[in-house]
Structures are given as C-alpha cells and as structure tokens.
Amino acid sequence: MLLDTASLYFRAYFGVPESVKAPDGTPVNAVRGLLDFIARLVADHSPAGLVACMDADWRPQWRVELIPSYKAHRVADASEGIEEVPDTLSPQVPVIEAVLDALGIARVGVPGYEADDVIGTLAARAAGRVDIVTGDRDLFQLVDDARGVRVLFPRKGVGDPDVVDEAAIEERYGVRARQYADFAALRGDPSDGLPGVKGIGEKTAAQLVSEYGDLAGVRAAAKDPFSRLTPARRRNIAAAADYLDVAPAVVAVAKDVPLPAFDPAVPSAPAAPAALESLAQTWGLGGSLTRLLAALAASG
C-alpha cells in the first residue's frame, strides 16, 4: 500500500475541525486525521507493506523548466518556491513525519521528485498487487489490471473509497489507463498550471485519444490533410506545439527515481516507543494514535 501522504493530510486537515488541538492549543487536526486514515486503511486492507510517500520537492525544477506555469499559482514565496499551505497546517507536517518515524512506518521522499514519482517507481518495481491511496487523479495513469495496480480514491474519508481499476477509468473518462497521461496533457489541468490545448476539454480530449491512440497519433492527424479533424482543431493543436512537445514529460509520473533503502514492512509495534509516547503527550494524539497502534498490532 502506497500512501500519497500530502494528499491524505490535506484531506484530513480540511475534514477534521481545527478545534482538535494539542494541550498547548496548537491544532493537530491533520495529524490526528491522518493517523485515523492509516488505521482504517490497515484494518480494512491488511497490506503486506506500507509506504508513506512524501513530496521532497512538490514543484521539481526540471518540470518547471519545461512548463514554467507548472503549479506556479500555488507558490506562496516566489523567491523560495515555497508552496502555499494553510498557516495552521504547515506546523503539523513535521509532527506527522516524526510520528510516522517513531511508529516505524516507512517514509520515502527523494530530492527533486514529487510523491507521485516515488509512488510511480515503487509501483513499477512491485512484484505483487499494489494499492495506491490518493485523492490525485494524476495517478490514474499507473492503474494496471494485469499487474494488480489500482487506486483507492477517498470520498469523504478512506473507509469507503472508490476503487479505480481500468474499467472504472474507461467508464469515467472514455480512455484506457495507459492513455490517461496523454488525455490529461491534451485537456490540461488549471490546478497544476497546465494550459492544455485551446478548445479541447475533457470530452474532446478523450475522443481524440481514443480515435488516434495516443498524443503522437493526435498530433500526426493534425498534420494529415485527409484526417477528420476540423481546420480549427488542426490550428489549435499546431499552435500548442511548444506545449505538447514538453507536456508528456511533465504529466508522466516518473518510474525511475533513485530510492533510498527502506523497510516497507508494516510495523506491529512502534520503532521508537519512548519517542512516540513523548509525541503523544506533547501533541495530544489520544484515540487516533491508540486506534492506529491497535490496527498495526492486529495486522502483525
């Protein structure tokens, strides 16, 4: 089981009231919400391995060099490239990291890469079934029925997620999982600063990718005077040539990230009990931590 950790703690932050606080009054809603999420996931799915994948670099420079607008609207400090995060969430992230480490849950991030890329690399290397837990549709491109890779997409929480397999992607978007990245590049994504192609929305992108197979096929059709594309669509695709030259590399999840050594085994007992107890007392982790510890113990 691969956790898109930031996706989950953002969801926890907005789903759990800020009135959930540590003894000193600091909000810990994201911390406790994430612990409850993991407890439920472990209890419901009994994963053989568990990895909390982290954004060591939420906006990698190599992606920005290809498309400067990539996630640009999320930058809080242009000089530092710092992501805009709610004031009461930022202080909770180091607590989350410390608690995961004390528990012994593998936490993996790689400089220069997003959590998506860590997930893509781990999924590519996996010998068995993989569940990716994320609220980010970009990871749908990794779904692979033959290899047993699926996405658990949370609704309100993680207790009843949408199970996204190849059939679900085809039913929802009209494209195959292997076509999802090309579909996303054509359509664009304002939330990631990807402009897409003028005049091509979700339905048209799906239609084009389905008809011509992939982005290269769509671009070839735009240059073919005998294809069924309208003159306006040909012009728009031609005008977006610079974007389409680089978009696939930006949209595609990396699968060759140099990962550090780590142990993905689900811990049945805390790796650092004293440190965990101190964190529990300082941050008032209460029932959330108790429930996670019970789930981990039962999984062992």
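Above is the first protein from milestone M3; the second protein from the same milestone is given next.
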Amino acid sequence: MNRDAIIEECNKFKGMIVVVNYHHMKEKLINITSKKNVMVNEHLRNHTYTHLGGKADFLVTPETYEQVQEIVKLANREAIDFTLLGNGSNLIVKDGGIRGIVMNLQKLTSIKTDGTIMVAQSGARIIDVSREALGKHLAGLEFACGIPGSVGGALFMNAGAYGGEVKDVLESTIVVDREGNLLNLNADELDLEYRKSNIPDNGYIVLEATFSLKEGKYDAIKATMDDLTYKRESKQPLEYPSCGSVFKRPPGYFAGKLIQDSELQGEQIGGAQVSLKHAGFIVNRSDASAKEYIDLIHHVQDTVKTKFGVNLEREVKIIGEDL
C-alpha cells in the first residue's frame, strides 16, 4: 500500500487528524517561504541525478538564509524529521521516499568575485563556480570543472578530481547548525580529509563558501579545464543517469580496476548496470528502482571483497525509506 493510501485508511478511523496536521505544516512552511517554494508528496526521482527515489512529504526550496534558519527551527519545534537533499548528484533516495521536511537549496545560486576571492552560495553548481573563475582569470578551481554537485555538496564531502580538492582552495564557510543558528567557520574547522568533512556529523547546512584563488592566465586555465573535460567525457558514462563515482578509492588500489578485474563490468540487476564505459560507475540504464541500484552496489562490494579481500567503501550517500 502506498503512502497516500495509508493516509486515506488512517483518515477513516481517525477523522481528519492526519490531513489537518499536513495542512498545518504546509501552511507554516508557506508562511516562512511562499507557496511556490513548498511541494507536497513530490517525487524525488525528479530531483536526483540517478532518477531514483520515492516521495517527500514536503519538499521546500528556500530563497534566503533566514528562511533556511526558520525552517530548521520549525522542524525542531514540531519534532518533524528534517533532511537536506542538496542537488541530488551524489545521492541515492530509496523507493519509499523521505518523511518530514526535505530541503533543497537549488535557489541559493549567487556567485560573487572580489579580486582573488570568490563567494558562492551552496546551491550553485561547483562547475559553474569553476567557469566563473575562468572568466575572471582565476586559477585553483580547474579540478572542479567536471564535478556535477553543488557547492554545498562539494564542501560536505570535500569533493575533488584529477589531483585537486575543495580543501586546497576553501577559505571559510557560512553554515546553519541543528538549532538554526548561523555560524561563520574557517576551512580548518571542517576537518576536511579525503572525501570527508565534519559537516554531516555536526548537522551543518552549508549556505555559502568563500574560495581563495590565484591570478592566472585565461588561456592556460582554459586549456587545463578543456583537458579535464575531455578526460571526463571520454571515460565517464554521462549518457545515463548515475550518482557519479560510487566508491571511494581504497588505499593502494583503484575501485574501477578492482571491479573490472572482478569481471563485473556490464553486470546488471533490473535496470541498474555496472557501466561498460567505466566500472566505477553504476548507471540507471532502464528505469531502475533504488532497491535494484543498491542491491547492485552490495553485489559489487561482496564480489570484490571475496576476490581481492578489499573493502569498497561507498562514496555515494543513501537516504530514505524502503517500500
């Protein structure tokens, strides 16, 4: 039975309590943001790069820092579950969706430059920030020209590629904590490591990031970005929905090589497939479910562990409920 049917059944026995509570929460969210920024029972597959995921009870897209703070405070007061979605690029949402409030910061996209300092809001794509840096003849973000995630997501996991990573250029950030307080943090307060930060452990919501870059020559910066873009487009399966690179690089190995040597390339469960183009990617080849996608991840991990004794740690985050 799906969620809507369950609510209907509950209403038969409990009057209008569930609907009234839903209406109550929707109105409170609209009062904080606006009607256009509040969606009820929204399919999250429309908001993830994998095209996977069930419904969110409430999907909210705030437009100001103050709105983000107020939504967090509302969730605390009402004791309702709260989830930050990001832009859905390095994420798998399960088929049962997500209960409570889901926040997407896709409308916080400002990018500003002052000399060699760039300030980008968390909903901006890190690709667009790197392109803005190119336009200002600023070097340091070339590595990010092929990373599909948002600025917030890039800080969340200390995103990197081709020898560069966020911690190399990050100066500071503004976040909201679990209580809805606004905090200004220096980069060294985030404990940035390989594909890791303390942002999830502290429950921070990134609102903006300040990058310290260097003056460079446009042609040299562009040549580097063109080269990295070619490498990405020629090696990665961009023609299918995916979450990007599924696994972290295990010490002393390459995840894709281990998967390929395990003869898993092309392996398929339902509509999910280990990419024929790059074994480190799992693609949604034909209307996969989240369960199929996750089952294939586990199958790859088990096979590599059995054959090589290496534990493949997921880079992608999995959230939500099973059906």
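Note on the second protein: Residues 290-308 form the longest helix (19 residues).
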